[in-house]
Amino acid sequence: MSAVILAADSVNVAQNVAFGIIAAIMIFAALNVVTTKNVVHAALWLVVVLSGIAAQYILAAAEFVAISQVLVYIGAVMVLFLFGIMLTRAQIGKESDLNNKGWALGIPVGVVLFALLAWVILDAFGEDTLPDRGPAPTVALSDQFLSIYLVPFLAISFVLLAAAIGAIVLARKD
Amino acid sequence: MLGAETVELTSGWFLENAWLVGLIPVIAFAIIIAFGKKLPMKGAEVGLASMAATLVIAVGGAIQWIQRTDAADGAGKEAGGLLQAFGRVLPQATEGEAKPFIDPVVTTWVWWQNSGLEFGIGSSIDGLSILLIALVAFISLLVQVFSVDYVRGDRRYTHFFAAITLFSGGMLIMLMAENMVQLILGWEIMGLCSFMLIGHWWEEDANSRAALKAFFTVRVGDVGLLVGTAIIFFGANQWAVDNLDSNGFNIAAIQAWALSGEANTQFLLWGAVALFIACIGKSGQFPLHTWLPDAMAGPTPVSSLLHSSTMVVAGVFLVAQIYPVFWEGFNIGTGGLSFIAIIGAITIVIAALLAFVQDDIKKVLAYSTVSQLGYMMLGLGTGAWLPAVFHIFTHAFFKCALFLCAGSVSHSGSHHSFDMKKDMGGLRKKMPITFAAWIVSTLALTGVFPFAGFWSKDEIIDNVGANSYTFLMWVGLGGAVLTAMYMTRATYLTFFGEPRGAAAGHGHDDAHAEEHEMEHISVGAPEPRSLGAAANAHADDHGDDHGDDHAGPHESGPLILVPIVILAFFAVFAGFANPTPLASRFGEGVELMKTYVEPRATPVVTEEFLASGGPGESASLVEYAVVPSAEEGEEGAKKSGCGFDAPEAGTVCFFPAVSHAEPKFSKILLSLGVVAVGYAVAIAFCVAFYGRRDKRLVGLTERHKVLRGGFLFLKNKYYLDALYENVIVRAVAHPIAKMAYWVNQNVLDATVNGVGVGTRKTGEWVYDNIDQKIVDGAVNGSGWAASEAGHAMQPTQSGKIGQYGALLFGAATVGAIVLVLVNVS
Amino acid sequence: MLAVNFLLLAAALFAIGVYGVIARRNAVMVLMSIELILNAVSLNLVAFSLMTGAIDGQVFALYVIAIAAAEVGVGLAMVLMIYRNRKTIALDELSEMKG
User: Fold this and answer.
1) Is residue A43 assigned to a domain?
2) Are residues A149 and A82 in the same domain?
3) Interface contact B808, partner A, CB < 8 A
4) pLDDT tens for residues B642-667?
5) Using CA atoms, how far apart are residues A130 and B627, in angstroms rounded to an integer?
6) Which residue stretches of B496-557 are H helix?
């Protein structure tokens, strides 16, 4: 696979190298998220994965999405996760029983799914190269949000509001 | 002046920023709601300040509009310092040529868009809208000044000011609307605020019922507004996109479309009908006028504002603003007997008759408003656009003054009662200023020379006659007689004769509050008194912190009197804004309304319109270009030009060439004469009936069968409320419920049963012939298989989410594999 | 850079997330795995946006981020409530759904 990753010709090498390193770290971290025996460690590994995603966004010339990723995921969602872990009094140390009894079933499903996706992706986009674009201007993004995607934007605002209220209602002690 | 000369259209800060008049009240509303209770005057100062600011902008805009028109006409070339040259160059109008169409000043932003349709919000200022904006701002300011004292001590003082400010704001938003969507927005804001204000004292059951009635009755009409807007949109949109680079919601585009000669007549007709139904609801026209008198349940300043310049005028404004649709839809130009004119004429008469049997002073005025709105509609429906709009203008002043006088009387003279027969009488000496203002306004309302109503109402009647609707002209004259008579009755009962009840200084008698308004009085009632007293009982709830309240009738304080006096002043002189009968003597220059308010029926070249981006572009000022009209003015070719012929290719019209009647001395004498007769009869009757209690007249309605029938018919308001509540609601709602039940019981059940029976029969047949012999074995076999499979699958239904997830993703993976294989191979 | 780089990375994250959803017993861990899946999808959207030059992909990536924030909020609140009622968040002990 590394051959595929690094085999691109008409592009600058640094980008490819950076991508490869980050991707390797991300996959390693993601595997740790789903295999570690310690819940808090899993959360911290997840931070690594999410930061990697943000880095990949920057490589993909999507600065604003990258910044949002950092702010929302690493800033807010991870804090929520840590609170969730603490409030549910998961053992901070090792926990032998983090997996289901039927956890092994996940391995074939995951492998088959990945194989399938990889095959389809390679079949469809095998030779396509990504054009070298400059960073997408945030202005263009906001123009989209406030014009043709205005209604979904308003809708998602309501979804967030509803989620916030719902979370409060659910988590309230009474 | 040479025809080749050109002038530039001017604009100015006030015209371009007129959208502020809509924004300021809305912001003021938010401030009052949020901080009002903590402010020293409990929010009133915010409302007053917002209205004052609005008035400044409106007056500035009006002055600049006048300068703009003058500049275009070549009259006032040396435009003032506030104005800037505005780019567009017009050919200089010369003598004998039609005056150029003055473009509205449009400032809009795209509010939202949907599938390529852009909805703008902002302001589109032309003569009509700036006139009414200034009027609304002025009246609102005076009414709020009046309210500071009148509503003082009320338990919802702050909310009152918040609502009344937003109410004016809604009207202003509607007046400056550049498209129908914004117009509907303002229209609905007003509807909501009227509900809040009419039900201001909602603890009284009657008040909350009145508020609901007003809201729902207007809602019935509002359906027409939505349907009409949709009809017009579907009719006009394609044309507007093709010709004006606009859309079917843009009001200018709708005007141009209606006059383009390419409009589908069916769209025009049904659009006009639907929109007029909205106006019937909002402007209290027959048969949806019933909410207006009940709306008197609100505080008096609300009634005054609602009846003079906002709310009820909204319907008239809608007709006046998109007049081309009605012009073409109802064939007003060719003398068609339009729906609008008929409804208006009916409204004039029935409302005036109803005003005779009211004992509540505010209800007399309410029916008077309905009747006057009928005049406006009659004028619009017969092509008398300018007099109708002028009547909106003059009517606002004197009707507002009358309502405020009524409020002043009840505030200081009759201990918060509005009952003329029980608690008033003889107040002219106690309240001289109020009395004088009332008399002046009454003379204005009844159209006595030279007060304001004379110039506008007689113009309507005159033009109706000149447009050869002779019968409707006589209806109008009859209405004028009736107006004189019922106003005399109200004046006599309130200010003359012996003081009665509270007006005589008696302690307030709470007994009358117990008499509830009866929708249908019993047939033998001797002298129905105090009807509507319950609606006024609310007045007891407020204002009792005045130390001098029990000191008998006295003149009101300055905060109440100053607005009344100002309004009375305008009730005298507002008519000189457009004194058509004087035009022959002093030249057309005295007709200010005709010059500055009426849009010119001159074709406009569309090309520059398109080049400048068309309406609805972001914050750009729409510029039109004018071609000098090939036709001669109104004199030569009367039935041609805009509204009669399709405009030439490449040009559009925005307003039909309405005709103007030549004032005749004989007609003026005729209308003044009938008014004088009305006064004479009414005064004689009042003195005889109420003053001397003449035996021949008193109790006539009981003795004389026909008269009693008529009296009861009026007293019960033509039984329209009974019709709506008992007949229509029952006849519609109950049968629907019954029918639904019947359908449920019979049709659906029968269907289900029938299907069941049929299925059973079929099943039996199948059972006998096929099942037993052929399928049975197979079914048994498959049943066994299913059962076994179920047992085998049972462990998967473990209730464990992890396993469910595994199955879900596994199944999805398998499905994806199948899809990929199918697609790839 | 080849387009498949991003897509394969996303596919890998997605598969790992799926494995996590299936294998994990702790509800919080399942939520984390769902985050992995959502991020994989966002990465795909951004990659396609880069590929086609249309900015819409980034718009949708931002929507996904917003939805994910809402989802985590509600999800963790639910986990908290389950924990309060049953003193456990082990998903295999929550078997009321057993048919």
Assistant:
1) yes
2) no
3) no
4) 666 666 666 777 777 777 777 777 77
5) 57
6) 533-537
Q: Packing angle between helix B300-308 and helix B180-198, nearest 10 degrees?
A: 150
* Residue A20 belongs to some domain of the structure: yes
Q: CB–CB of B387/B456 below 8 Å? A: yes
Three-state DSSP string of B587-626: CHHHCHHHHHCCCCCCCEEHHHHHHCCCCCCCCCCCCCEE
Give yes or no: residues A149 and A84 share one domain: no
Q: Which of A120, A143, A150 to mutate: most B Cβ within 10 Å?
A: A120
CATH number at residue A55: 1.20.120.1200
User: Is A29 inside any structural domain?
Assistant: yes
Closest CA to B133 of B173, B182, B186, B163: B173
Give the residue from B360, B230, B375 showing the smallest Cα distance to B297: B360
Q: Is B630 on the interface with A (CB under 8 A)?
A: no
**Cα–Cα distance measured from residue B596 to residue B66, given in angstroms and rounded to the nearest whole number:** 6
Q: What Rg, from alpha-carbon coordinates, does chain A have? A: 20
Distance CA B462, CA A32 (A): 92
CA–CA distance from B695 to each of B698, B700, B769 (Å)?
A: 5, 9, 98
B405 Cβ contact partners less than 8 Å away, ≥ 6 residues apart? B434, B437, B438, B441, B564
The mean pLDDT of chain B is 73
A14 plus A73 within the same structural domain: yes
Rounded to whole angstroms, what are the CA distances from A115 to A106, B486, B527, C12, C44?
A: 14, 92, 96, 9, 17
Write down the pTM of the prediction: 0.61
The half-sphere exposure of A163 on its side-chain side, counting CA atoms within 13 A, is: 17
Angle at which helices B558-573 and B452-466 pack, to 10 degrees? 40
Residues A62 and A7 occupy one common structural domain: yes
Q: What would the two tokens of residue B679 be?
A: 């006064």
Beta strands in chain A (DSSP E): none
Q: Count the Cβ atoms, other than its own, within 10 Å of residue B396.
A: 26
Confidence of residue B9 (pLDDT cuts 50, 70, 90): low
A86 and A146 belong to one structural domain: no
The structure tokens listed for B758 are 């049929």
Q: Are residues A80 and A147 in the same domain?
A: no
Nearest Cα neighbor of C36 from C71, C83, C88, C2 is: C71
Residue B809 has its nearest CB partner, among A113, A123, A148, at A113
Domain's final residue, options A94, A125, A152: A94
Query: How much of chain A is in helix, strand and coil states, percent to nearest 5?
Result: 75, 0, 25
Q: Which of B64, B9, B625, B720 shows the shortest CA–CA distance to B370? A: B720
pLDDT digits (tens, 9 = 90+) for B137-195: 888 888 888 888 777 777 778 888 888 888 888 888 888 888 888 888 888 888 888 88
Considering only CB atoms, which chain A residues are within 8 Å of C84?
173
Domain boundary among A60, A94, A128: A94
Cα gap B201→B535, rounded to integer Å: 10
> Chains touching chain B at 3 or more Cβ pairs under 8 angstroms?
A, C
- Domain architecture of chain C: domains with CATH: 2-91 (1.10.287.3510)
Residues in B touching C40 (Cβ below 8 Å): none
Place of tokens 């809608």: B318
Shortest Cα–Cα distance, A109 to chain B (Å):
6
Q: How many domains in chain A?
A: 2
Look up the domain containing A49 and give its range.
2-94
Query: Within an 8 Å CB–CB cutoff, is residue B112 touching chain A?
Result: yes
Q: Which amino acid is at C41?
A: V
Please check whether residues A79 and A15 belong to one and the same domain: yes
A159, part of any domain:
yes
Whether A143 and A77 map to the same domain: the answer is no
Closest-CA residue of chain B to C98:
B799
Q: What does the alpha-carbon distance between residue A46 and residue C24 come to, in Å, rounded to a whole number?
A: 15
